[in-house]
Write a structure and sequence with these properties.
SH3 type barrels, about 0% helix, mainly beta, two-stranded antiparallel ribbon
Length: about 100
């Protein structure tokens, strides 16, 4: 079970985008995540008429390492570490380390 998942609200802890928040668009297999409107880079793209892509300079999100983001805790309004707990019905859920609240409802 992963600590950060697609759709989670995260806050960036290091780098040029430190303090910015966004939603996780995707989780890559090598321990990196893509966050919406964070770590934007400019890419020079060739036109591809078959795919309907126009050429030029496009902005897109570049991946960040998962260690550089923290899950946003709405109760404390800060980034928080994640732990795991097994509930009485046998489900394994993610919990915030600071207050023990369950992340997955």
């Amino acid at each position: 079970m992963e600590r950060i998942r697609k759709g989670d609200r995260v806050i960036v802890t290091t780098g040029r985008d430190k303090g910015r928040q966004g939603t996780v668009i995707g989780v890559l297999g090598d321990g990196r995540v893509v966050v919406e409107n964070v770590n934007m880079v400019k890419k020079h793209q060739k036109p591809n008429p078959q795919a309907g892509l126009q050429g030029g300079i496009v902005q897109k999100e570049a991946p960040l390492h998962v260690s550089n983001v923290m899950l946003f805790n709405p109760a404390t309004k800060k980034g928080d570490r994640i732990g795991f707990r097994t509930l009485d019905d046998g489900r394994k859920v993610r919990v915030f380390r600071s207050n023990g609240e369950v992340v997955d409802a």
